[in-house]
Fold this sequence. Notes:
Two copies of one chain form a homodimer. Chain A is of the alpha+beta class. Chain A folds into three domains: 5-79, Arc Repressor Mutant, subunit A, CATH 1.10.10; 87-128 and 236-356, GAF domain (Beta-Lactamase), CATH 3.30.450.40; 135-234, Enolase-like, domain 1. Chain A is built from 14 helices and eleven strands. In chain A, strands 3, 4, 8, 9, 10 and 11 form a six-stranded antiparallel beta sheet that branches. In chain A, strands 5-6-7 form a three-stranded antiparallel beta sheet. The longest helix of chain A is centred in the C-terminal third of the chain and has 21 residues, at 336-356. Chain A is elongated and about 95 Å long. Chain A starts with a helix and ends in a 10-residue tail after the last helix.
Amino acid sequence: xxxxxxxxxxxxxIVNDYIETxxxxxxxxxxKKYSLGISSATIRNEMSDLEDMGLIGQLHTSSGRVPSEKxxxxxxxxMMKSRALSVDxxxxxxxxxxxxxxxxxxMIQETAKALSRLTNYPAIVSEPxxxxxxxxxxxxxxLDEKSLLLVLVTDTKTVKNQIVNLPSDTRSSGAPGYxxxxxxxxxxNRHIAGKSIRDISRDIIDKMLAQFAENAHVLMPVLGIxxxxxxxxDDVRVYTSGxxxxxxxxxxxxxxxxEAIFHALEDRESLFAILDxxxxxxxxxxxxxxxxxxxxxxxxxxxxxLLKACxxxxxxxxxxxxxxxxxxxxxMRMDYTQAVSVLSGILQNxxxxxxxxxxxxxxxxx
Amino acid sequence: xxxxxxxxxxxxxIVNDYIETxxxxxxxxxxKKYSLGISSATIRNEMSDLEDMGLIGQLHTSSGRVPSEKxxxxxxxxMMKSRALSVDxxxxxxxxxxxxxxxxxxMIQETAKALSRLTNYPAIVSEPxxxxxxxxxxxxxxLDEKSLLLVLVTDTKTVKNQIVNLPSDTRSSGAPGYxxxxxxxxxxNRHIAGKSIRDISRDIIDKMLAQFAENAHVLMPVLGIxxxxxxxxDDVRVYTSGxxxxxxxxxxxxxxxxEAIFHALEDRESLFAILDxxxxxxxxxxxxxxxxxxxxxxxxxxxxxLLKACxxxxxxxxxxxxxxxxxxxxxMRMDYTQAVSVLSGILQNxxxxxxxxxxxxxxxxx
DNA sequence: GTTAGCACTCGTCGGTGTCGAGTGCTAACG
DNA sequence: CGTTAGCACTCGACACCGACGAGTGCTAAC
Lengths: 366, 366
């Protein structure tokens, strides 16, 4: 699509103004507000052309013009200026890096919070989808007579723990003591560290049972819980933040619309559906792929009916054996410039934290 | 306050109807809808009396009547029937108990979810406020050359873990190995298990330093992190669920009101302020104390301006060395009967989970 | 090609009238 | 004396109307 310079400027004025005010904008207003050096009548003619091209539209005859989806698409692809982060934003992100180092578990939640806080749009962040979690280290810790604590470190340095309740009908009175547990931990590590849950064969279990000797009754509950924990680890979680921000947008003034979105953003399944739909569109709009992999999906480009009136800005991030997703939702007239710059800032931020945590390349050679 | 039987029934009809419909109700409607066997004119006379007593009011002359705060108070104190849980509700709670056994950490979040799900009111649940967390067990787990994992079990069986990054300028190359860490863990346990962070004296640290010998450089980072973790443990967290439900109430139709509540329910500080205000009111309305310690705070009885138009139903729950709080928020015309029965069901539920986790009396004698 | 002018459209806003639900008061009834 | 029917009155909700203004398209003149 090719636009002459004047049409370009007028379209830009319309989109910017609408992003800011959410009101249809007329020719006279453009002439007054933006000094383009042409009269409102000329602008009217140009606007008429832009409407013919499908870039703008009007809600009814004789209201001002509003960008169409195609108009937003054009704006995003061709006239959006990339903006550097403001000092405040950059400082905020810096602080976040510092706070998060050493807290891999919270980083993802914090990222969602930061995103919505900086942009005032609802944010969604999913944990990385890992191909196959492997066990890095196991430790049994004594608790009391009837139970012990199982601590599990996975190859992503995620740490899980759970209480193991021992069967009460065991011969030996009570749980094994500290020294015994240390010995049992060593046996467990020798046999299953570095393996995924599928790799634990009957053969290995038998060997361990033999070595556990009089403590054999401890092994099965422990293995069962390890399996559960690894399964839970393979379950990707999603976090949202700033959902209430949608109340501030006039396009969601009707409570029913706001409620529909609220509902979707509280439900795990629909969150995944939202994040997932990017894939189909990715090929279609190559222009965005260039922007550090940040995708912008506008209005009806969304495959979910629920989002037909919204825009979605999303990107993937990578931890060496999996990728997660991070996204912002807003009305179609969202401030793409700001949202994209913040999102790309956060992506860099996450990368730094991930590197600081040493998750990058050292995991395989444990 | 004494009401004759007819006034009693009329007031009950007004409150019930208003809870259900959120519309002012007139004498004719009462006569038709509730078969009290008296005419609308008689009802008008009685309503006039009820208004003089301050139990009901009207928004403007010639609109129907609406319960006043005093009216709700009377309703809650004298005419609310206690209702048994429905089969569905009971089953839902049963399931929750099963799911939560062994997951002390999630129980509180799950409780908030269950509350809001069963009542359709926003729920707030705070973690127990513990007087002084003590260390029950410490375990050091090897991770890699530069770091190790510290696992801490406290007297509430909460388990925390954090990665300890060792100073890189240490003489000995890399972190201690598995056997060494096991030995160091034993030293730590011998000296500080059963103590709170304040009890760890300079003297104890010196002794441990001596025993750590060539691994002394590991001790200080570890102790620093233990202090942080205990401090974080003493920080009570609060969870909310179902905030979006307020959108369904006509009294929050104006977005600005809904937004104010949203804001308060997303902010930790104001959540505590909400939960805290019960104390002052507790003495005032003894009548409620009888209902298993469930308090009902209506409208202006709230000390927070924000809640002057709301009601709050709250209760405390106890784990042996601390108490937490659990609450529901709704419009003044909330369905007190249902809310109270669900809340009391959940309280019993929590008690069962707590007992199943063995947190009750066995903790002290570790 | 640009602009001024004009007729036309349509949503918004204030004013007006009607309708219905509600009330209080009074008088009649058992 | 308590209860009820009837009546006048109040007031919000709603529909209707006209004025106003922001906006458009079209045409003619510059």
